[in-house]
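Task card 7
Instruction: Convert sequence to structure tokens.
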Amino acid sequence: MGFVPLIETTRGGLPECRHWGAVAVANREGRVLAQVGDPYTVTFTRSTIKAFQALPFMQSGGAQALGWGQDDIALLCASHNGEPMHVQQAERMLSSVGRDYRALQCGCHRPLFAELGIAPLPPGFVPDERHNNCSGKHAGFVAHCVLQGLPLEGHLNPAHPLQAAIRDHVARAVGLAPDQMSMGIDGCSAPNYAMPLALLARGYARLAGGAPDTDFHESLVTLADAMVARPELGSGTGRHDLDFMQAGQGDWVSKTGADGVQVVGSRSRGEAFALKVMDGNMVAQVAAAVEVMDQLGWLDARQREALAPRRSGRIISAKGLQVGERRAVFRLQTASD
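Output:
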């Protein structure tokens, strides 16, 4: 499948774990600029395509019709923590079309703020669909259906007009035909699509840098502006996407996906990278992403220092002793190599 070692951990001076994966760096035209492993490795995109799943809503003028601002649009693209700010934003989005969380079909799960150990659950807390990390995306689904007069019942079914439009728009955003994308069902019960890493990177190069050669340009710029302006709504306290976009100072559009997928686009460069860690290890995923940014020359000294805790480094015991190391074991191959 074209995977190679990306991150290695050692203990007692001996290799203990190796996390294999692949990386593709591409521009808006789809040219592969650099790679590790096979840049055309096909993987499910998971939450990295949320901005593209919002395109039918954006293209139809839904955000303008409802007066949605950057807070609302950022949550459309979010994999959030389920913190109060996220729940309240989802409620406002739904109320703008006269609905509440019972219209969402994403199910509920333990909110990420508790799952990741960021904060404990309040006494007597009972999660609902608002706390699902995808509730913003699903609020957008509901809003689109209401505005377009589409049935809410079964709106996650792949044959529903909403999902058919999403498949078409996702494919066009990355430069594929809809039938070239394999479909699976994501954790939130919505259809999700698999594609080559190079095409996912191309989509993010377009999201970050705009796509003036397509009719998506204005929508993509609006989505990216919101993601960069309100990264705390797109992820949440303690999350690496928040750290990445804050360190990027408006230049980086970053989005994580479950099971080892990460995409980051540079707005000033009009390019992006997509990576997949095969075993889904998020620590390795994040460390590899920082290493890619450094090897691409995206990091200055301040950014390198800011992201050092997210990068390869020391493995510390519960007692505070260094017991091992985590390091990158790959080098990007550029088109000129």
